[in-house]
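User: I need a structural model of Related to glycosyl transferase from Desulfotalea psychrophila for a docking pre-check later this week. Nothing fancy, just the predicted structure tokens so I can convert them on my end. Input:
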Amino acid sequence: MKIIYYMPFKALDHPTPSGDLIIGRGIFAHLSKEHQLEVASSLRLRWLYRRPGLCWACLLEILRITRKYRKESPDIWLSYHSYYKAPDILGALCSRRLGIPYLLFQGIYSTKRRKKLSTLPGFLLNRYVLRQANLVITNKRRDYKNLRRLLPEDRLLYIAPGIYPEAFYPDATARTALRQSWGVPREGKVIISAAMFRPDVKSEGIKRVIASMITLKAAGKKFLLVLIGDGLCREELEAYARPLEDQVIFMGRIERNEIYRYFSAADLFIFPGIHEALGMVYLEAQSCGLPVIAYGDWGAGEAVIDGETGLLSSAQEPEQMTNNITYLLEHDDIRRKMGKNAQAHIRCHHDIEKNYAILSETLEKYRKASAS
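Assistant: Understood. Predicted structure tokens for Related to glycosyl transferase:
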């Protein structure tokens, strides 16, 4: 099957890592194993409606793409991620001009964006895009619920987010080596967190982790906090963490294909996930056998089973996150059981090969329907 693939918010080769980029690349990599995929364009549509020059560039891309594929039309157009900041006008209009099915993975419908004049154009354009799609696929149950307000259920599909569990596994050798290098005794507790240290909710989340650990240190708890990540706020976060003294290590940025080693050396993963859409890191940590402590208000609730694979609390009660950390540090058997549950949960419900097999079957169904 010949599939045209497009990511309007960020190109496949964009240098800045993010959860959405990981998902977008994962879809492309998986489908490329069985199908012929071509990237439609590297044009980024972020804030299209605020940038007249970008509007003209989008129009020229539509003309270029439709000319290119007019003689040998692809079977399917598949786009990943359309929302008010980057509505997929390119995919919606090109697929219509080419007369092929238009499928949209991770379309988001948020009516609060129509209440502000600054985001109303993005809301309207994105609503048009969603209505043009033959099928909108989502990996978030909250988004599925919102999309039902606009589209009938036969034009919606939920596919759970996934990772390759074999790439995120407990490595006993790495655990021993890293803990020795950190000076952690055999029964010592290592708490780990990971995020980009950028000036927004990511760094605020790390601050809340540090604040909880400062409270625990003041209460006499022994632990080592390992923070993975880098960015503009690193110096600020290092200063904020000074009260932890030798009970915190900033590891800097670790490549994704190496992060399993650091998760293997830890006993608990913590990251609040403030306004986190999903948070692939929760899947990765659980796959390595780590129970997760986070806020349940946002994306962590999609990935973590409260009471079974971790403990979730409300962002309105930050002290409860600290209490949850204390509880799992003090109850080794429960923590280890949650870790085993977490591994099994990822392999059962969030295996990318199993979940994206549904995507392949869906694309084939629309190809056959279009051909007939």
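Before docking, keep this in mind: The chain has two domains: 2-162+351-371, 165-349.
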